[in-house]
Amino acid sequence: MCLLSGAAGGIDDPSMRTVVIAGGTRGIGRALADSLDADVIRLGSADADLTSVTETRALIARLPDRIDALVLSAGCFSRRRIVTGEGHERTFAIGVLARYLLADGLRPALERAPDPMILNLCGVGGIRAGRVHWDDPTLTRGYSLLTATMQVARSNDLLGAGFADRYPGSPIRYVLYNPLFVDSGMHRHFDQPARALVGGAAKVFGMPVTKAATPLKALLDAPPPAPLTALRRGVPVPLPDPADAARLYELIRTTVY
Q1: What pLDDT was estimated at residue 126?
Q2: How far, in Å, are 124, 207, 251 from residue 204 at the CA level?
Q3: Rg (CA), the chain
Q4: Which residues have C-beta within 8 Å of that of residue 209, sequence separation ≥ 6?
Q5: Can you say whether the dihedral through the CA atoms of 220, 224, 226, 232 is positive or negative?
Q6: Nearest Cα to 167, choosing from 96, 236, 218, 116?
Q7: Predicted local distance difference test score (pLDDT) of residue 172
Q8: What are the TM regions of this chain, as residue ranges (predicted)?
Q9: Tens digit of each residue's pLDDT (9 = 90 or more) over 108-138
Q10: Which of 24, 33, 109, 196 could form a disulfide with 67, with the two C-beta atoms 3.0–4.6 Å apart?
């Protein structure tokens, strides 16, 4: 379902839950969208360029004024460093800035729902190598696909902690979820022979996207009671450092405003 038809569905049938999935046209996001008994608005590249702060803000303005759940799963991978027209490193722009803008911008719409939730698919409890490069977040030095991907994973952990700290009275439950190794097609972004090796390993050891979507659907159907929950394939893990979260929010504030 495209953006416009999804939005219209929510208006025509107010009894249905409205779920917005950024990255809902492929991978885990698509599998989750297919499994939901709800009015699903699948956001993909045809709806907006989420690497653009300007387009992301314009997209937010076109979405319904009541949303029951927001799923953040959009991202991109690149073997080389690409800078957007607005001067942001592309992986960080779609994986961090867009997720921040969507959660913050859609907060009023979410708070109009009876049981609102944000589900952020990220790297919580994952590889310890992931860190935010505070002195060089656009990775002008030492860029690699892994470095950029892991910075985004760590940053999204902090987005959840920052949201909960910034809006302590909000009814929105924010859930950070790391599905671990999923056969989502990421191997296509590697050069050979890594592409074949990673792709083969994903087929053998990775979880199919349809199976990975099952616990996500359960979370959307019954959100945890806590303002912030961090899960690694369904198992609770320690929450991110709120001091680092505040630092990331300040970094983003000076970047996009």
Answers
A1: 56
A2: 24, 9, 40
A3: 17
A4: 27, 28, 30, 31, 182, 183, 184
A5: negative
A6: 116
A7: 98
A8: none
A9: 999 999 999 999 998 876 566 678 999 999 9
A10: 109
pTM for this model (two decimals): 0.88
| Look-up of token digits 């190794």 | 181
Give CB contacts under 8 A, 24+ apart, made by 210-216. 210/31, 210/35, 212/28, 212/31, 212/179, 212/182, 212/184, 213/28, 213/31, 213/32, 213/34, 213/35, 214/35, 215/177, 216/28, 216/32, 216/71, 216/119, 216/121, 216/177, 216/179
Q: How far apart are CA 7 and CA 118, in angstroms?
A: 18
pLDDT at position 186 is 54
User: Tokens representing 233?
Assistant: 């394939």
pLDDT tens-place string over residues 17-69: 999 999 999 889 999 999 999 999 999 988 999 999 999 999 999 999 999 99
The two tokens of residue 7 are 């939005």
Which of 125, 123, 162, 124 is CA-nearest to residue 146? 123
How many DSSP H helices and E strands does the chain contain? 10, 7
Give the pair of three-digit tokens for residue 187: 């191997």
The separation between CA 35 and the C-alpha centre of its own chain, rounded to angstroms, equals 18
Tokens of 241: 């450092």
Q: How far is CA 79 from CA 76, 97, 199, in A?
A: 10, 20, 16
Q: Where are the domains of the chain?
A: 3-182+211-256
